[in-house]
Amino acid sequence: ILEHWRAKNSTAQDSLPKLVLISTSGGGLTSATWVLSSLLKADSLLDGALLDHTAMMTGASGGLLGAAYLRELKWRQAQGVLLHIDQEKHIQAVSRDLLNSIAFMLVANDLSIPWTTFEYGGERYFKDRGYIFEKQLNENTDSILDKPLGAYRQAEEQASIPLLLATPSILNDGRMLYISTQPMSF
Fold it and tell me: Is the pTM for the entire model greater than 0.70?
């Protein structure tokens, strides 16, 4: 992946291109909004080339959501699907409330209908807080991120988009969990 990234970013006069790594912190919608706003500003200052120089984006929770959202917008723009990134529209979309739906699901699911299921990819799953979070996020953002992680594998391998590495902690014992389309080890 790094060899592809270097080939994409090297020029005759710049054999050592500038490598950008983006690390975000959690903090829910506030962090998602701040990260998206900050990265959009940095991207505009670099004439739209921030993610061209970015090899990896990492973090957890809201911050990584904001970074992943920008990555998808820029990927769609590179493919010609999206002509212009309307900064205000996308900042508002990522900052819309998610908690009311989750709170309702918690009460409705835990008290009255705890075994409601849905089907995805030929498998049946229980509707839980994760399900309602994703459903509400997709409604808020016009389903821009509604695709499996595997949809990004080839683009990451070719360094067409930055590698996205989610690093949440497991609350029960504090262990780290690494989520990526690429193999991860020590």
Answer: yes
